[in-house]
Amino acid sequence: MKVLHINKSDHVGGAAVAAVRLLDALHQHGTDVRMLVLEGFGDHARVELLGRSGIYRQMMFLGEVFSFVPFEKNRQNRFSFSRSRFGFDISRHPLVREADVIHLHWINQGFLSLKGLRKLIDLGKPVVWTLHDTWPFTGGCHYPGTCGGFTSTCGQCPMLKSPAPDDLSARQHETKEKIYKDAAITFVGCSRWMQKMAAGSSLVRKDLKHEVEQIFNPVDTWLFRPVDKMKLRQSLGLPEGKNLLLFGAANVADPRKGIGLLLRALNYIAQKEPELKEKLELMVFGKNIEVLGGQLPFKLHSYDVVTSEVEMAGLYQAADLFVLPSMQDNLPNTVVESMACGTPVVAFQIGGVPEMVHHMKSGFLSAPGKSKELALGILSVLENHAELGRNARIFAEENFDPEVIAQQYQKLYQQITG
């Protein structure tokens, strides 16, 4: 059985990281698996680049972005909604033609248009689609927030400048409905939260004969593992006698990642426990860290964009806890990685996070948006981070190990091809 994974990139974004990890896990498990991407480093033996020129790829990306500008409510939502008007037709690619199973991941921003998606699905091959966000079952949004339009026909989209019953979201919903009709698609939520949302959508519901499974993302539990924190801090030039908090995201400035809520929590800590100004320091990774400016009450260790998994593991291993102030998220790789390193997580009770972080057992879960409660959670976990970290590691070994996840996907492939 030949399985082809399809994702826009092999290195940019959480979906890319998760997809490549799954690719490696399946290969180690003995599955004949390859990946096709639009852009990447090109140095992975089982990943093939689509082979389009950089200029052509950029044209598709810009075409996709600017085609949405007339519809957008504001610039902040520009990348929260994908129109999928521009993209490539990969249905005749040799890897696609020889595959027994097509496994989709994240395909937006100029990779596959809706027309290209239709041609791929019309090949009649069994399709598995891992849901890294909600776009596959909405009229275009990647996270719907409080909007439940995807359970019916979309329309009246709050992300659009002129919401209406027949707006862009409703038209795209109708197009997807036609594409998915009679298609052999099995959707996989990385979290039970995503699985439940997908199963409740009008595009994926069971009476359309689409199955919705749930399988976690894998993480290399040998690379991401607990180590001697003090020795590691010495090698990284970090203080040995301080409490270190870690926060990071692909884009620190992304409002969905909750940087404003984190700043309020940290300032509350500084006011409530002023002695911690000399004992507590913050480590941050990702682009646009400069948005923090002079707003932090604690010393900052800045790491910009981290591309090395070894370096990334080192940051989790050196920290006493990882804080995730996101208000919308599926199954963040950051939480999976932190727990595997034995570093407890403080987060809001949103998305798939409660399926990983067990309150006061492997971390702390705050009510969504409550920065004061998030602050109290940070203080609470700092008092008992060693024990909570041990519990987090045990959960990661049992649920995120590559062999565990590979077996689950291999079983799924056999079911849909048998």
UniProtKB/TrEMBL annotation:
<keyword id="KW-0808">Transferase</keyword>
<dbReference type="Pfam" id="PF13692">
    <property type="entry name" value="Glyco_trans_1_4"/>
</dbReference>
<dbReference type="Pfam" id="PF13439">
    <property type="entry name" value="Glyco_transf_4"/>
</dbReference>
<protein>
    <submittedName>
        <fullName>Glycosyltransferase involved in cell wall biosynthesis</fullName>
    </submittedName>
</protein>
<feature type="domain" description="Glycosyltransferase subfamily 4-like N-terminal">
    <location>
        <begin position="12"/>
        <end position="144"/>
    </location>
</feature>
<dbReference type="GO" id="GO:0016757">
    <property type="term" value="F:glycosyltransferase activity"/>
</dbReference>
<dbReference type="InterPro" id="IPR028098">
    <property type="entry name" value="Glyco_trans_4-like_N"/>
</dbReference>
